[in-house]
Amino acid sequence: MTNQKVKHYLLGMRRAIPVLIGFLPVAITYAIMATGAGLRAGETVGMSLAVFAGASQIMATGMLAGGAGYFSVILSTFVLNLRHIIMSTCVFQKMKCKNVLLRILCGFGVTDETFALYTTEEGEEADPYFMLGLITVSYSSWVLGAVVSWRAICFPPHCPKALVSRCTHYF
């Protein structure tokens, strides 16, 4: 990577620090709900790795806890995330990047937060490497928040039942 690309990547990482702070409470909420819905550690973290959309994960967890079938959960998640198609289109239009693999990677990382930060960034800094910096911090904080939260909730395994029971009723 050239110095300019590294500079833009690091700038994206710095711009995403507020997202990190905002994602942690939501990741904790998600892990509490996932535990209350009976999801195991692998399922909880796996959903965070594969579905980088907090609202969808919380909705899916609530649906699973309510006994919904997998098809209903997948269809509902798909519908809820249709907005990402529009947001990704706007990001790609601004990005002006021809590398298909880079565009796919950036498209995976489009969330409401990364979209807002990327589309409001002025100048030549708003390139794919800036977006990758945003994604690195936001995705890492989301997944690590779920991992740490799930581990804290389930250690020791017998103590969080009241906490999990109370928290899942709020959502």
What order do the helices and strands come in, and which of them pair?
Blueprint: H1 3-15, H2 17-36, H3 41-50, H4 54-65, H5 70-80, H6 83-95, H7 100-108, H8 112-119, H9 128-153, H10 161-170
Summarize the structure.
This protein has about 170 residues and is mainly alpha-helical.
Describe the structure.
The structure is a single chain. With 171 residues, the protein is mainly α. 77% of the residues lie in helices and 0% in strands. The protein is built from 10 helices and no strands. The chain has helices at residues 3-15, 17-36, 41-50, 54-65, 70-80, 83-95, 100-108, 112-119, 128-153, 161-170. Helix 1 crosses helix 9, helix 2 packs parallel to helix 4 (54-65) and helix 4 runs antiparallel to helix 5. The longest helix is centred in the last third of the chain and has 26 residues, at 128-153. It is globular and about 50 Å long. The model has no long low-confidence stretch (mean pLDDT 86).
Residues in helices, as a percent range = over 70%
**What would you call the structural class?**
mainly alpha
**Through-space gap between termini:** 44 Å
Low-pLDDT runs: none
How many extended strands?
Answer: 0
Which descriptors would you attach to this protein?
mainly alpha, 10 helices, 171 residues
